[in-house]
Amino acid sequence: QVQLVESGGGLVETGGSLRLSCAASGRTFSNYAMGWFRQAPGKEREFVAAINYSGALAYYADSVKGRFTISRDNAKNTVYLQVNSLKPEDTAVYYCAARASGRGAYYSTVAYNYWGQGTQVTVSS
Predict the structure, then answer these.
(1) In whole angstroms, what is the distance from residue 122 CA to residue 24 CA?
(2) Engineering a disulfide at 79: which of 33, 34, 111, 116 sits with its beta carbon 3.0 to 4.6 angstroms away?
(3) Which of 107, 111, 95, 87 is nearest to 4 (CA)?
(4) Which residues contact 24 (CB under 8 A, 6 or more apart)?
(5) What confidence tens digit (pLDDT) does each residue in 23-49 have?
(6) Angle made by CA atoms 120, 122, 124, in degrees to the nearest 5
(7) Percent of the chain at pLDDT exceeding 70
(8) How far, rounded to the nearest angstrom, does the alpha carbon of residue 98 sit from its chain's CA centroid?
């Protein structure tokens, strides 16, 4: 199994920034592609960003492109999501997820095998 633990969420004002972290253990981290998803109250879980096993390729939802940056440090078994220029509509629980490299669509929840517990991001007006 792979265990994922998110951290770094919090309460910020509109326009603020956070760096979310996801620490992985249990398997070789570099063998997994990683994704970030978010879920707001009353809404379905949605894709935010994804990164391939090496960090050479990254993908973003249109709603966050240009504001969010996904990265990874395989030596630290950690994936990050830098969230800038935050808006109230970014308020959600943010989840990281892991999937075997080369399996499925990066934007689909069903492609991911392991999930963290989530970290809350709240953006006030």
Answers:
(1) 24
(2) 34
(3) 95
(4) 2, 3, 4, 32, 77, 78, 79, 98
(5) 999 767 888 999 999 999 999 999 999
(6) 175
(7) 98
(8) 10
